[in-house]
Amino acid sequence: MLAFEFHSPEQEIIFPLYKQKGIRVFVKRDDLIHPYISGNKWRKLKYPVNQAKKQNKQRLITFGGAWSNHLLATAAAGATFGFKTVGFVRGEQVENTVLKLCQLFGMELRFVSREAYKNKLLLFEENYGLDSLALYIAEGGYSRQGALGCSAIIHELTRSYDRIYCACGTGTTLAGLQNGVKECKLESTIIGVPVLKGANFLHDEIKKLNVAENNELTLLLDYHFGGYAKTTPELISFVKNFTQKTGIMIEPTYTGKLFYALHDQIESDKIAPGSTILALHTGGLTGILGVLDKF
Prior knowledge:
single chain; 295 residues; alpha/beta; Rossmann fold; 2 domains; 6-stranded mixed beta sheet; 4-stranded parallel beta sheet; 18% strand
């Protein structure tokens, strides 16, 4: 099986607030897995890429926005493991650093209208339906295979945690964490921090992945800061302070909202003293390139 043989470390972070509240906080540093196929991106791609190898596919076809970490991770995985890659990009043709990196890794970019982008399966069928050497990979890596890859996060843990916090967009990583907790017979509660508005739909999206449906899952719906890829001066200030105080870089689209939510939960006494908490760093640090003008 193709894999990066790397179990990311669990690193404790120290803030006076955490000590004052009697809470220990650790970070699972999945951002260290790979510079570009980092965090949950590799975990969600691992099984589709292995499937492509087993089936002798030659092309990986996927989808994303103009600043998509998933597009970049797929492009880098293709170059690493010997696949051609095609990325359907939502919206008008643009140039930016992330898309340039995708092209550097050999990805062919195909810009499509926002209307056409809504039906990704149709885009694939119209362009690659007769191509037996092409493999469809869903936007953001949303799939049961992706969830299976993310369940390994729990199997790697070296200690037990009362709560495990994770930023979420598609729900794939949360589904994997639930599955891992069930497989390892742990009592940990999974807490998701959606980075987009109106994320109650994620409960159904996770159920569609058909893993560990009975496990408890909590979504904190009030930390989206206006919606996906939206930010505020308060969030930017938090990201800067957290990065400078811990030496762990975060960005405002996913991990910034995650750690802000966790910090706020601790500050407002939503977490019991004596708790041990894990926050999953899902990588995607190239996302900060799109908002550098706000720093």
